[in-house]
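Re: weekly structure request thread

Next one in the queue (239 aa):
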Amino acid sequence: MPTRSPLVLLVAGAAAVTVVVAVVALVAGAPWWLVVVVAPLVGGVPALLVHRHATRRVLDLLGARLLDPDDAPRLANIVDGLCIGHGYRMPRLAVVDSPAIDCALVGHGPGDAHLVVTTGLLESLERLEIEAVVARGLVVLREHMARATELAAVAALLGRGERAGRLVRAFCDPRPVFDADIDGVGLTRYPPALASAFAKAGEAGPPPGPPPTRHLWLIGGDDELRPPLETRIDVLREL
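Done, posted below.
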């Protein structure tokens, strides 16, 4: 899970561009007042655009498409029940075509939240297992979703290769994953369902998406970003 805000990278990048543009403009003989006005715009506007469009950019990276509740009534009913029962705002629903079993939360805040599930999750899990995974996802909605989304958007600026993956790993700490698993079980009060979903997810294979998105998935994605799935299952079975 991201433990530091990636916005510092956007701010640092914007500041660096501003300084470079200002120096070049002054050396070229531009009026100082024009440099003061233009340089911050050149440095700041791209960073602002990355921030504002992070949600849409990340959904595109995942290959997610929005779901109408009528398209997945069982999922919509489960999410609605959990949100009403525990005081969460209903997120928008989206799906990624993949046999993997996983879900992700994308957005800047509760009003911009998207719960992204794979088709494998919808087709392979029982109702209680889906409820357990969704509950695990809702834990992320309030605490880590915005940072995770910003991190994916910023990392994507480096491309879709391992440079982006290294940046993601630098901002993520795998240790809070256990706490989030336990908090998710606290919503359903049935640890075996989440343990069973994890076991099926391990057999189905890793979720899709380029390195900038690996940390978004709640179950799999990158063994360096979270503890081994077998260990997480063992912890759940001891509850």
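The radius of gyration is 20 Å. Residues 7-27 form the longest helix (21 residues).
Next request, please.
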